[in-house]
Amino acid sequence: xxNRALAxxxxxxxxxxxxxxxxxxxxxxxxxxxxxxxxxxxxxIAITVAGTNGKGSCIASMQxxxxxxxxxxxxFTSPHFLLYNERICLAGKPVSDxxxxxxxEEIEEVRGDISLTYFEFGTLAALLIFRDASPDVMLLEVxxxxxxxxxxxxxxxxxxxxxxxxxxxxWLGDTREAxxxxxxxxxRAKRPLIIGEQDYPCGFEQMVAETGADALYIGRxxxxxxxxxxxxxxxxxNGPMHIDQLPRAGLLPINKTLALQALxxxxxxxxxxxxxxxxxxxxxTGRHQTLSYKGIKIILDVxxxxxxxxxxxxxxxxxxxxxxAVASVLEDKDWAGIxxxxxxxVDDWFIAQxxxxxxxxxxxxxxxxxxxxxxxxxxxxxxxxxxDSALEQATAEDRIVVFGSFHTVAAVLNIILAEVSSE
Length: 423
Fold this sequence. Notes:
Layout lengths: L5 H11 L9 H13 L6 E6 L4 H14 L4 E4 L11 E3 L2 E2 L2 H15 L6 H16 L3 E5 L16 E4 L7 H4 L3 H8 L8 E4 L8 H8 L2 E4 L5 E3 L4 E7 L2 E8 L6 H13 L6 H10 L7 E5 L2 E6 L4 H11 L6 E5 L7 H8 L5 E5 L10 H10 L4 E4 L2 H11 L5 E5 L2 H17 L1
Parallel strand pairs: 1-5, 1-6, 2-5, 6-7, 7-8, 13-17, 14-15, 14-17, 15-16
Antiparallel strand pairs: 2-3, 3-4, 9-10, 10-11, 12-13
């Protein structure tokens, strides 16, 4: 077998499988069983997280809490911003190229003629790395949906569904009921299922009951208050647990609350002091992340559907400053819904087509939707040029919000980090 560098492996995996997304557990589970046969895995507590929005924030909060309390942790998320290694973390840090390459090689040796997608290969690689590291807890983010996502080959000790909204309808269905059914497919009978959606669709409780999971609903079984202070009321193994004076800044309080309840449902010990410290410092790239660049406030957010855009707009509302938007989405996104959600907080739009994905929406179509919504904007040749144009028109009192996709945010992050590293 040739000695391939990580970049070579990733290029190979991107081109090998006929489709970028192919839901179903048959192929990946077959390979996983072969890998388990060749070498056993020491069980870790596995927590799986699905949801339309909030998955990354919930997992990042859990990782911070676990590390603060002295637990060892492995975290698998997707997609990445700058480096593929971001997807697989141990002890809060991305793993090395060599660890990933070693895992890829092990998968290649046993898969035979079974074709795997890019995501499936990465999922198996993360599980192999966690097998060897044996962390106390594995945090596993669902890539798409839940029931048929590669992550669901793992029978999680605790499952979390953060939210249910319309997104990825081509794969998951065009109703919230259908999408809910896919997401709760990660639940396991007689194991905790933490539910963060408060406005769940018709028939949802019956769907949950049919899984046989021990469901805990936010607002009913556990809760949080955000005003005048952030306080949570949780269920621990020894009874109710209350933590007050939690930090409100950074990630949304609801996702921090889900993280706390999921860890307690897993039987882990948490205390108030360490929980406050962990959630004070937790941050996540591209989730309402604020930077300063060339004297201008830049807000990065991967909001890529109307529900996430509404949350972003709520966070932006109330500030008496002009807001310039640098935005673009992939073609399966509800761009009209996103523009509608952001319309009241954006003063001018700087639109460009994403250049590093074949699923990018056409730039002129994006701009047309902006115009039809009665908004002002302009079309640039690239995300980089859109940022440059926004910066040229911005004053020190303005802010630029970059959103719509991981691809959009990553393009701007690359610019900012390249300039910082060259200073």
